[in-house]
Amino acid sequence: MTGDHRDILKQKGMKRMMRRRGFLGLAMGMSTGLSRMVVPECGLWAADAPSGAGKDEPLLKDLVRTAWTYFYENGHGETGLVRDRSHRDGVDERPQASMAAVGFGLTTLALAPTIVDVSAEQSWHRIRKTLIHIKDHLENHHGFFYHFVHWETGARYWNCEVSSIDTSLCLMGVLVCEAMTEDRELKAICRAICERVDWTWMLSANGFLSHGWRPESGFIPHNWDAYSELMHLYLLAVGSSTYPIDPAVWDRIERPRETHFGRSYINSAGAFFVHQFSHAWIDFRGISDRHANYFQNSVEATQAHRDFCLKHFEQFREYGPQVWGITASDSAHGYVAWGGTTRDGPY
User: Fold this and answer.
1) Is residue 271 one of the residues assigned to a domain?
2) Residues spanned by the domain of 301
């Protein structure tokens, strides 16, 4: 990580302070074992959190191994770009990759060899190819990437937008690689990818980040202004060492609180993954601001979602106390953003 990311006091059990440009370090807490920390600019404070998978460790290791296989097999051997989706059975010839998938893929390739018996050599060979392609060959606008690209050429796909959220998910994977490697060249490539992102260019007039931009029509008239998978997006933007945005935007994000199945939590109208994506990289356990403890908020949302699934057991007999969970996915009706606690979509 950069020198700005190292400004962390590591005394256990104490509040940890960091400079504004050390903000990105928060995103690495789960992946690299960095100490818990405080971000005073956004009113975030931290306490030590429990760790350990316990009896679930075999299951989690199996998931890690399966995830590594998925991302390795669905990443292009030369560009490293990862397919947006894949058929359950047989060969999938669809060429579209997504930058979000690239971010999840980089994360998995970097971490899996430290957890299960997969090849570190294969992983880092693919990571190097991916990072070099992203830095030197993949089209970007002010550092932001198109949502979908051709997995072989990196060319824009479907006339899609330059996407702020998908770029941010890719960057989270890049940061994991920077933290996990001792290779100075790779670290420099990672820093170059992150530092060229001009977050101020993506700002709307109201101070929120736009969903994206199209060369044909300009910025999309929708902003990231309400609770969703956006937490990591704003942590990256506020913590940028080159183009930071005003941290005051954090408190301006709408956080609608709802009650479902007797549980009250900050919720979003989106699919259930909004409660999961940022947590893939940021260990929110013990981290709070004046609005919420975001780890506990996702726990409440998850328990409410489980109750929602079990409520429909009679209609969907595959559901049960140990088998449940619905989020945005492909279906017989195409892509559907299934609701988390409401029957959104063609059930």
Assistant:
1) yes
2) 257-347
